[in-house]
Specification:
It is built from 4 helices and 10 strands. The chain has about 240 residues and is α/β, with parallel strands linked by helices. The strands form 3 sheets. It has a 5-stranded mixed beta sheet with strand order 5-1-6-8-7, covered by helices on one side.
Length: about 240
């Protein structure tokens, strides 16, 4: 009789499994934190940079220069300076809105973050006055805190935005494009130019630049939007 009561209790007295099949001591579901957004720091207030064998925005070091150089602040003295900066930041933020990126104008308290310095001209870093920008693509995203330069020869918020977005994409393994109006069309050759109009992120069938870059053969087609999502992640 005792054995029968014991078996009956195992079957009908609750314990491990309730009537609804739930386990009383089951572990709560794990709530994984979302991916940390990439930080893109737009430096409009001037910056002294030191040469280095590798970029490190946290210490203002870059491969883009051969000596200590100071890039002046963007449009100092212009009556509409704040308006111009706000327009550039808005354009970059809107273009990158689908992706996991925070666009900021104050240096983040901690890295990693990419920094693009906007201001001055090529002569401030020992280059020709007509050079629009300097950057080093990072196809493998091997550098966690890249540094790029965009000069004020590029006049207009959208012209500056396309260069900024293109440099940021290249830091994270997105190939350069040869399609007019594409945000990754930032080479000083081929079809690329910097009209003051909104650039777009291309989709399947985007044509790569006429040289091998980031694993995409010269003039080959690739899905740019898919690569942005794969390399940078979707906005959360």
């Amino acid at each position: 009789m005792r054995l029968m009561l014991f078996l009956s209790c195992l079957i009908g007295c609750g314990g491990g499994d309730g009537a609804d099949g739930a386990t009383a001591d089951a572990a709560p579901p794990v709530d994984f934190p979302p991916p940390v957004p990439h930080q893109l720091f737009l430096q409009f207030e001037g910056q002294t940079l030191t040469p280095s064998s590798s970029d490190n925005a946290l210490i203002n070091a870059t491969v883009d220069i051969d000596a200590v150089r100071t890039i002046p602040a963007f449009d100092v003295g212009a009556a509409d300076r704040d308006t111009k900066i706000a327009a550039v930041v808005a354009a970059v933020t809107e273009i990158l809105a689908p992706y996991n990126v925070d666009v900021v104008t104050a240096r983040p308290a901690a890295g990693p973050y990419d920094m693009i310095v906007i201001g001055g001209t090529g002569t401030d870093v020992g280059e020709a006055a007509g050079v629009p920008a300097i950057f080093a693509p990072d196809c493998r995203a091997a550098v966690s805190s890249n540094v790029g330069l965009v000069f004020t020869q590029l006049n207009g918020s959208e012209s500056l935005a396309v260069r900024i977005v293109g440099e940021f994409g290249s830091y994270h393994g997105v190939p350069l494009s040869n399609v007019v109006g594409d945000c990754m069309c930032i080479a000083e050759s081929g079809n690329c130019s910097y009209p003051n109009t909104r650039c777009t992120i291309g989709g399947a069938g985007t044509t790569a630049l006429g040289s091998d870059n980031c694993g995409v053969a010269a003039n080959a087609s690739f899905d740019e939007a898919a690569l942005w999502l794969a390399k940078v992640g979707a906005h959360l």
